[in-house]
């Protein structure tokens, strides 16, 4: 265990009951270890988003292609879209067009 790990563990053990620290790991999307796996995961997630937001809830086939560029920004925007406390503003045109198309 490194000194930094030890300090982190010590701070966690001494934190008050009203304090919590959360750290997220976002793997780099620039050079994924497996393009096919990353694409399949994105298609599954976007199929679920489409099912949640579609105006007519009918069973649909999973997406076969990703309707916009998968970037860290687009993933963060999709995540923020489902953040009930804060929401988001979608600025990426292709992502915006896809989301709007779900409501028709």
TrEMBL record:
Which PANTHER family does this UniProt record tie to the protein? Answer: CILIA- AND FLAGELLA-ASSOCIATED PROTEIN 54 (PTHR33487:SF1)
Q: Name one GO biological process term.
A: cilium assembly
The name on file for this protein is: Uncharacterized protein
Question: What's the domain of life for this entry?
Answer: Eukaryota
